[in-house]
């Protein structure tokens, strides 16, 4: 099964088709719920067909987006079948609540609660049944068939990276050793005939190169034959980018950056991003002002009105320019009394009781809306780091400077894909995701990250 690129971001074609099918099911469930509601009431009055179709489209798109926000169009079910069903139910309830809120704000919209409740029930039955049927009868349906060609140093690493999403149909080592050291010897295929013949025999969709040093080790004629036979040949760096959404540092070199696609930051894209930032920031400021007021009061009460509510700290912004980030204070006033910068860690004793809660729920980040309105930050982008940490990390990796080519953000690709970092090693691992974002940045990817951030906030992932 193949991936396609949507505005520079890799999306699985089977998952896009699944989203399309489920969107149709949501629309059909709403129309059926409308008929059921009037039938149960013994009322023959119905909404005009064109108006009903319009409502059905709005409901279907809202439910599909809420499913995406819950991570239900990711490549694998991370929490098993039970977790999958819970996420489906939560996403449908969330979507129905959003539609009910719209009907309350705009009284002319006929999203009646009884019809929405029936729509949620019917949608859950249809979608849960579809998902269960797929995962029980055809678990391989959304997996690509991959033939791995490479050396033992990298084979296990790429297999682990794609274990949940790929179907490995064989491993052809570069080494001439008849029994190369593989952790999965059952996949070993002897290179006794052309690669294209092996790939076609095993119905492989693509040949994955797992070779660090390609000098003299690549059978170019055989690989070209694979390509001409319609079998995709994938480089290891592109594989990690597609499967894990990162740019792997130990495979990265300036030559690859020069010749790869991406890194397109056009004026129109930046303008749209800025408009989205301002509109989203103003909406959040209005929507979460009660939460911010209660948080400010809780912090003040905990400190007995003796210490500041807000915390300002210098961070590195776009193109390396410093700025002051604004957050709700979540640590004690003497957290860095010795003047030495420290990484925040899990269970950090410097965090206050209120601070622990607002960090877990990400409420402490809300004052950064002011930084967004001032143009110092964006809603989506790499996490802004302290100058002290940036200076050290630049010494460790030359490519760390690349993340400052875009504005830092309240949320970002690295924050979604990697746990909260508390060390230089974590920062370098997150850099791999930040480089992916800088390379593939688009309005579509920003919207995708904002949707998935809903999942992070609701389930408390990644916070200290």
From TrEMBL:
Principal localisation: membrane
Protein's membrane topology: Multi-pass membrane protein
GO-annotated molecular function: phosphotransferase activity, for other substituted phosphate groups
Keyword line: Membrane, Transferase, Transmembrane, Transmembrane helix
TM annotation in the entry: 12-32, 52-72, 84-105, 111-134, 278-301
Presence of keyword Acyltransferase: no
Cellular component terms (Gene Ontology): membrane
Residue intervals of the Bacterial sugar transferase domain: 273-458
Pfam families xref list: Bac_transf
Superkingdom of source: Bacteria
Family matches, as InterPro entries: Bact_transf, EPS_sugar_tfrase, Sugar_tfrase_EpsB_2
Localization in the cell: Membrane
Similarity comment: Belongs to the bacterial sugar transferase family.
NCBIfam families: EPS_sugtrans, EpsB_2
Protein name, entry field: TIGR03013 family PEP-CTERM/XrtA system glycosyltransferase
